[in-house]
Amino acid sequence: MLASLVRLARSLRVRIALVTALAVVVPLVIGVFVLATLLQHSLTGSLVGRVSDQAAGVANAVQQQGPTEAAVSNVDPSLRAVVLDRTGAVVASSAPGDQAPLSADRPRPNTSSVRGERRWYRPGDVETPLIVSQGVRSGGRDFVIQVSSSQQAQHEAISTDVKILLLGTPVLTALAALLAWWVSGLALGPVQRMRREVDEIEARSLDTRVEVPPQQDEIAALATTLNRMLDRLEHAHGEQRRFVADASHELRSPLATLQAAVELATDDDEWRQVAPTVRDEIGRMTGLVNDLLLLAQLDERPATGAEEVDLDDIAQAEVQRWRGDSTIRVRYDGSPARGRGRQRAVERIARNLVDNAVRHARSEVVVSTTTGRGGAAVLTVDDDGPGIPVADRARVFDRFVRLDSSRSRGQGGFGLGLAIVRDLARSSGGDVTVAESPSGGARFEVTLPGQVSDAAGEGQAGRGLAGRVRPEGRRAGSRCRARC
């Protein structure tokens, strides 16, 4: 019960209702006292005018009749009026027996003063009469007319209004809070529904989507964003499952080969016969594990430590590696190009592309480097093999993809080589594309960021390096025949 109350108190609807109540009650209370002050100012002004008019009437009567009782006989019964001489003695009064001055003010003739005027409302203010004193000359003598009025009626009227308004403030505040609670419930209802729908989505039901409200508002935008996130999660989950399944499938063959070899090798002679096979399969598994680890590292965090690399030197070194080692002619035909990237990553890119091209070339592979737009360094690898269909050029960089499914895993690779090329290139700020080569095969082009100032006038002139190597069968343990 207590936990439910705590959750309720922390809910957004409660906070909205409380903020709304606070936003209503504070202005209401301030408004009540501002209104009371305005009423006080208005009523006091009217009362001052009324009492001043009565004092002026008495002054006229004193000027005409002298300071007699008749001069104050026409004063409003709710008021008190006295006439004082120069000594402050009462010479006439509207109330018989009232011989005390109403105020100590003694204005000169034709001037007046006001005492007890209240322009601001103060709760619980004590009764203070309003007194208007006016000087007048009659028969060569100076007199002071004083007229007073009680302010109790005005004060009670304003106090009554203030009490009514203050009593109504909690009611209005409660209504505003309830209205805010109801409106926020309507607004947050779809959010709660979406939350429940998302809570019900599990790894096995990532194809479920949140219902998008028909209104084109923020709630609909939130639902759309959640669905996009679920799309990405479903795609990532599917990729992960396929990745694990493919990796497991790839490991089954070498593991089965190892198991069979170990079971058959019962003596030293048989072990010497199966040792090369075991060594080759261990090498294949080691290569697969290393490739998987590299891809996982690239997925986890972007590569750092970019430096200037001589792309043409790396390309020529890769061509030199193949010299005399294949029936495929591998040559370099390019110009100096300097880019930015990690040396080992760029070397791995060049090696994977050249290995892939040699596997599919009929007779020749051409490796070239050049400087592109903005000083970018470009590595191009062309082969004269069967090429890659346009429909498959996008997915050729996906992991564990073999375009030639007829090849066995002993002849083909794991389908990770080109995926590694793409991830390494992008981690260096570049990219890789595939197109048709001038010789009809496949052309892979890697672009790395470079500097214009460093791209020209440096390096060696392009030169062709070619090599003849032994047949592919002699490299069965380290290279494959499928595009990877």
Describe it.
There is one protein chain. By secondary structure, this protein is an alpha+beta fold. The protein folds into three domains: 2-156, 2-Layer Sandwich (Beta-Lactamase); 218-298, Signal transduction histidine kinase, dimerisation/phosphotransfer (DHp) domain (Helix Hairpins), CATH 1.10.287.130; 304-475, Histidine kinase-like ATPase, C-terminal domain (Heat Shock Protein 90, 2-Layer Sandwich), CATH 3.30.565.10. Helix content is 49%, strand content 15%. The chain is built from nine helices and twelve strands. The protein has helices at residues 2-10, 12-65, 152-200, 218-264, 268-300, 311-321, 343-360, 417-427, 452-455, and strands at 80-84, 90-93, 112-115, 130-138, 141-149, 307-310, 329-332, 338-341, 364-371, 377-383, 431-436, 442-448. Strands 2-1-5-4-3 form a five-stranded antiparallel beta sheet, with helices on one face. It has a five-stranded mixed beta sheet with strand order 7-9-10-12-11, with helices on one face. Strand 4 (130-138) and strand 5 form a beta hairpin. Helix 5 packs parallel to helix 8 (417-427) and helix 7 packs antiparallel against helix 8 (417-427). The chain is rod-shaped, with a radius of gyration of 50 Å. The protein starts with a helix and ends in a 29-residue tail after the last helix. It is found in: Cell membrane. It comes from Flexivirga aerilata. Residues 185-238 form the HAMP domain.
